[in-house]
Write a structure and sequence with these properties.
alpha+beta, Nucleotidyltransferase, domain 5, four-stranded mixed beta sheet, 3 helices, about 25% helix
Length: about 120
């Protein structure tokens, strides 16, 4: 179980009884010469008001760029696709060609790769 001592030190109330599953994730370096793009967004439901932001980092963790955009009212699937597409457009504007797009939506991965078996 996650150690909540740091949160308790700052008097942040935790409700660990509500946590069903914790998944620890670590940042992976992209290959030399590649740029990793981490996509994240926020929605208020589906359909929803949505916005997204992306961070572009190089193979030695250097910050290359980033952006934030409001996407108006969309469904969650359309949001993920728009986030990914917008991210690739921004990378193209910055002259980036070797991209590692990190996205939490399997449907977006299928849309870009055509792969349906990720096991």
């Amino acid at each position: 179980m996650f150690n909540f001592n740091v949160l308790k030190f700052f008097y942040i109330n935790t409700r660990s009884d509500k946590v069903f599953h914790l998944l620890f994730v670590r940042w992976e370096f992209p290959l030399l010469g590649w740029v990793k793009i981490n996509i994240d967004g926020v929605v208020t439901g589906s359909p929803c008001l949505a916005a997204c932001g992306d961070i572009f980092r190089g193979s030695i963790k250097e910050f290359i760029g980033g952006f934030f955009v409001f996407l108006d009212i969309r469904t969650i699937l359309v949001c993920w696709v728009l986030w990914s597409y917008t991210c690739i457009e921004e990378a193209k504007k910055m002259g980036l060609t070797s991209l590692w797009l990190e996205c939490a939506s399997i449907l977006v991965c299928v849309a870009f790769t055509g792969m349906t078996n990720f096991s």
